[in-house]
Structure formats: structure tokens, C-alpha cells
Design goal:
This protein is mainly alpha-helical and 154 residues long. It contains eight helices and two strands.
Length: 154
């Protein structure tokens, strides 16, 4: 707590994020997706935008090709992602979401939407719109507008 007796806003943001992730994990686990990794959601959203190569995924997620390859290998073993030949380049393989991957993404998106609906019922549309504006400002408009971030949106 600060001298004013209020909890530091950075700590509140961290705690709110942790609680959101706990709720999300609980929800998707209850729907049969109890094996998700920390990076899976980013990969789901990126591939939902369309198939890409491991290099393309690495670029979009701003990680190394080796890191992307490890994530994809793991997600492929768990049945969320599959590699298919690129029809325009026989040497390339495109990454696609499987039905399981698409279902996991749908479950996560549903949680996100329901979470926001609950906040809107509790605090009202104006408060949540203001909260969204504050978070956008905190993240930085330039950051929120990057192609990397845009790939993660609904």
C-alpha cells in the first residue's frame, strides 16, 4: 500500500491480470482444454487470421523461429495445430488451427466476451469504455495499433 492507504495501481493491474487468467484457465479447462500452454492463445489468434509459416508466426509473435518451432511442435502434439503443404510453394509448410484449436479459441473468446459483459453490468458502459481508453493509453496507442497486436484482436 502507498502512504495514502491505497494499493499501488501497478500491483492492482498485476492482480487483476492474474485473476483474469485464472478465470480463463478455469473456464477452458472445464471445457476440456486443460493442456494449454502460456503462448497458445497468441498462436490461436494469429492462425485464426489465416495460415502462416513458422517464420511468419515467429515474426508476428516477435520471437525466434526456433522458439516458434518449439511452440508449434508442442501444440501439434496436443492436437491444436497442424502443418499442411503450401499450395504455392512445395517446400513450405503452412500452420493451421485444427478443429480442436478452433474450439479452444472459441472457448477463450467466449470467456473474454462474458467477462466484459459482467463488468458492463456491474459498472456500466461508460465506466468500461473509459477503462478501455485508460488501458489503451497505458499500453500506448502505437503499441495497440501494431500489426502484431491487431492479429490478436477478435
Amino acid at each position: 500500500m502507498t502512504r495514502s492507504g491505497k494499493i499501488d495501481i501497478g500491483i492492482l493491474l498485476l492482480l487483476a491480470d492474474q485473476e483474469f487468467v485464472r478465470g480463463l484457465r478455469s473456464q477452458v479447462t472445464a471445457q476440456g482444454f486443460d493442456d494449454q500452454g502460456r503462448s497458445d492463445g497468441f498462436v490461436f489468434r494469429t492462425l485464426n487470421d489465416g495460415p502462416t509459416t513458422i517464420s511468419g508466426l515467429a515474426e508476428r509473435l516477435e520471437i525466434t523461429k526456433q522458439g516458434a518451432g518449439q511452440i508449434v511442435d508442442d501444440m501439434e502434439q496436443r492436437g491444436y495445430v497442424e502443418r499442411r503443404p503450401d499450395p504455392s510453394d512445395a517446400r513450405a509448410r503452412l500452420l493451421h488451427l485444427t478443429e480442436r484449436g478452433q474450439a479452444a479459441l472459441t472457448a477463450a473468446r467466449k470467456y473474454h466476451q462474458n467477462y466484459e459483459r459482467r463488468l458492463r453490468r456491474t459498472f456500466g458502459d461508460e465506466a468500461i469504455d473509459t477503462f478501455r481508453d485508460i488501458l489503451t493509453h497505458m499500453a500506448g496507442e502505437a503499441q495497440v495499433s501494431t500489426p502484431h497486436f491487431r492479429a490478436l484482436m477478435f
